[in-house]
Amino acid sequence: MSIQHQSVARRGFLRGALAAAVLIPMGGSLASCAGGGGGPAGPTGAVSETNPFGMADQSTVDAVIFKGGYGIDYVEFAAKEFEKVHPGSTAKIAPSTDIAQELQPRFVGGNPPDLIDNSGAKAIGFSTILAQLEDLNSVVDAKNLEGTVIKDTLYPGVLAPGTFEGKLAALNYVLTVFAVWYSDSLFQENGWTAPKTWDEALALGEQAKTKGKYLFCWGKEAATYYQELAIASAIKEGGDDVRLQLENLKEGCWSHPALQSVFQAMEQIVKAGYIKPGGSGTAFTAAQAQWSNGQEAVLYPSGSWIENEMKDQTKADFKMTGAPVPTVSGSSKMPYTAMHSAAGEPFIVPSQAKNPAGGKEMLRVMLSKESATNFAKTKLAPTIVKGTVPDDGFGSTALVSQNKMLEDAGTDIFTWNFVDLYGTNKDQLVVWNSFLDGKLDTAGLTAELQKITDKVRNDSSVKKIEVK
């Protein structure tokens, strides 16, 4: 996903959930679409371990890549590797800032590109093309350029957002970590540690106050960053039942005891004056600069795009570092190290492309160690491929901490899609701005969030997706 897309995605916490959010709405049509399209077109070659998809010799691969904050150079890097591995073949990488407008006519015409990064705010709705996409399970079942089966090199859970009825329709390339971020240099200077519980967060707020600082700050467009923080904390505290009730729009879902305990802890922090006032009238980038440059607040909840987003407004020697969100108690159902993380930047291979085998082969190269490492190094963000971030994080303390959090979490990684699936973030922003302003208490916050959920649940025109 891109920085350009993040301006949309962050507000609904799309990032890694984007693929699921746009794929899921097909509902009952998924089973009938699961078989894929009409099969590969164009010439094919001999299948071998080094050519697992039977790409023809001297092939040309046509790739269209969304050009946002990540650019297209990471795919161009992989294209050079592809051409080394397959002498005489060529990968043509074209940028796009409007995938839907540019490529929907090609799908209709039966001549889509061989590989597409279907990302950005103007991505193609998967409901119109799902049946026309290749099953990418063959890609992850293949060996990478180093000779290791690709699926064995990936972080847990990263294939789930693009998988339907066993068909891997989209392969999400970039991994996003959601965390509470802080300046390690500031914390070391003051002898502070990242809070593991909300009680510890409250105590840190008091300590920060003695230094003339706030615990948190926020900006009006990003008030629901605190919803993300609350939901992640509640899932850790109360287990998967919290997530499932929210995902399935259950009556009274916002009154779940785990959510209530998190809301009450946050209300204590608001009432104590530990959140910088005025956020509902402050642009989110300005608020983030209050944290990253002015150090007026000591913690900030966000996805791992925060480092790149604020790279020009971060104090020297800040040493940006992420930590898992706090739990309510020390006896939470999931460990403190559990975390919200999801894959994004969905790559697809159309079945009716001239060279779908070549599109898959490009993905195989991108998922090999050299290309994945190049992405992590140049974008300061991990891909779904494990083991590509060195101990020094290419000089990025934020990237080092992301790597550590993922390793510590192991299989205790979760995500959710209901906010983006049902488009509720806009209404929820109003509620969270009021709560952070101190105008709503826990009861008011709960009631208003439930109203938003109930409106969607009771709207017969909205397809409901059961999540299990």
- Estimate percent helicity: 25-40%
What count of structural domains? 2
Low-pLDDT windows of residues:
1-40
User: Class by helix and strand content?
Assistant: alpha/beta
Order of helices and strands: HHHEHEHEHEEEHHHHHHEHEEHHHEHHH
CATH homology-level superfamily of the largest domain: Periplasmic binding protein-like II
Q: Give the mean pLDDT.
A: 89
Tell me the β content: 5-15%
Q: Could you tell me the number of beta strands?
A: 10
* CATH top level assignment of the largest domain: Alpha Beta
Q: What is the gyration radius calculated from CA atoms?
A: 22 Å
DSSP helical segment count: 19
Query: In CATH terms, what is the architecture of the largest domain?
Result: 3-Layer(aba) Sandwich
Biggest β-sheet: count, sense, barrel? 8 strands, mixed
Walk me through this protein's architecture.
With 468 residues, the chain is of the alpha/beta class. The protein has 2 domains: 3-176 and 342-391, D-Maltodextrin-Binding Protein, domain 2 (3-Layer(aba) Sandwich), CATH 3.40.190.10; 177-340 and 418-457, D-Maltodextrin-Binding Protein, domain 2 (3-Layer(aba) Sandwich). The chain has 19 helices and 10 strands. It has helices at 3-12, 18-23, 30-33, 73-85, 99-108, 137-141, 184-190, 198-210, 225-238, 240-247, 257-271, 284-292, 306-309, 356-366, 369-379, 397-409, 418-422, 425-436, 442-457; strands at 60-66, 90-96, 115-117, 163-164, 167-168, 171-183, 300-303, 320-323, 339-348, 413-414. The strands form 2 sheets. Strands 1, 2, 3, 6, 7, 8, 9 and 10 form an 8-stranded mixed β-sheet that branches. The protein has a two-stranded antiparallel ribbon with strand order 4-5. The longest helix is centred in the last third of the chain and has 16 residues, at 442-457. It is globular. Mean pLDDT is 89; it is low at 1-40.
